[in-house]
């Protein structure tokens, strides 16, 4: 699973964005949009559950770290990582997102 370590944070971060982009091409049927949003948020939550399972709790510093040069001049990098506290904040956020989708299920009506 070590090859997946460099990808999991990117997946958890950009899977909701990819779902939002795909929603732009959905027909404007509220039922389908709701279900798609719920499915994407649950998939993101399940992807985030890999973090606490694979986290090495005795090791200090960032884990699941990604550090890639994005733009050479100026020196801009795509850099992500989690430590022991932010790990649980990521899991909490991805847990609360499907709940928020379900809570707002019928609250937004047509204009």
Q: Helix count?
A: 4
| Order of strands in the sheet with most strands | 1-2
- Principal-axes geometry comes out as globular
Q: What is the terminal separation in angstroms?
A: 47 Å
Give the strand tally: 2
Tell me the Rg in angstroms: 17 Å
Task: Show unreliable segments.
Answer: none
Helix content: 55-70%
Order of helices and strands: HHHEEH
Would you write up a description of this structure?
The chain is of the alpha+beta class and 111 residues long. The chain has one domain (2-103). Helix content is 57%, strand content 14%. The protein has 4 helices and 2 strands. It has helices at residues 5-23, 30-48, 50-54, 84-103; strands spanning 63-71, 76-82. The protein has a two-stranded antiparallel ribbon. Helix 2 (30-48) runs antiparallel to helix 4 (84-103). The longest helix is centred in the last third of the chain and has 20 residues, at 84-103. It is globular, with a radius of gyration of 17 Å.
What's this entry about, in short?
This protein has one domain (2-103). It is built from four helices and two strands.
Draw up the topology in text.
Layout: H1 5-23, H2 30-48, H3 50-54, E1 63-71, E2 76-82, H4 84-103
Antiparallel strand pairs: 1-2
Helix pairs in contact: 1-2, 2-4
Task: List the defining traits of the structure above.
57% helix; globular; alpha+beta; two-stranded antiparallel sheet; 111 residues
């Amino acid at each position: 699973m070590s090859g997946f370590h460099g990808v999991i944070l990117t997946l958890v971060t950009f899977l909701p964005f990819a779902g939002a982009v795909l929603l732009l091409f959905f027909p404007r049927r509220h039922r389908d949009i709701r279900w798609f949003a719920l499915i994407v948020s649950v998939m993101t939550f399940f992807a985030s559950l890999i973090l606490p399972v694979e986290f090495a709790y005795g090791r200090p510093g960032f884990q699941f770290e990604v550090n890639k040069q994005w733009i050479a001049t100026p020196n801009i990098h795509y850099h992500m990582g989690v430590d022991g506290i932010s790990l649980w904040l990521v899991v909490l956020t991805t847990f609360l997102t499907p709940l928020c989708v379900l809570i707002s299920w019928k609250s937004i009506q047509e204009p």
